[in-house]
Design a protein that fits this description.
The chain is mostly helical. It has a domain of 29 residues. It contains 3 helices and no strands. The protein is rod-shaped.
Length: 82
Amino acid sequence: MAWHDPDSWLTAAFAPRASTILVTFLLMILVPVLLHFFLYRAAAAPATPSFAVLGPSGSGKTSLVTHVRSPPAHPFCLGWKR
């Protein structure tokens, strides 16, 4: 039985039948989902806090981030002491 015979399994696999379309659709949906769960089950991404600094050009976004990340050279007072 050759692959091009009407009753071969390869001809049946590529035939436009409802069963072939259903099996292909299920494989198309299930394989990526199962692969995702298998690959990403063990290694969860660590949650890191992040934020976006938005503003016009030249408004000091880079300067603000640089000052927030580096330790202060001289601490400043946030309020009046009594």
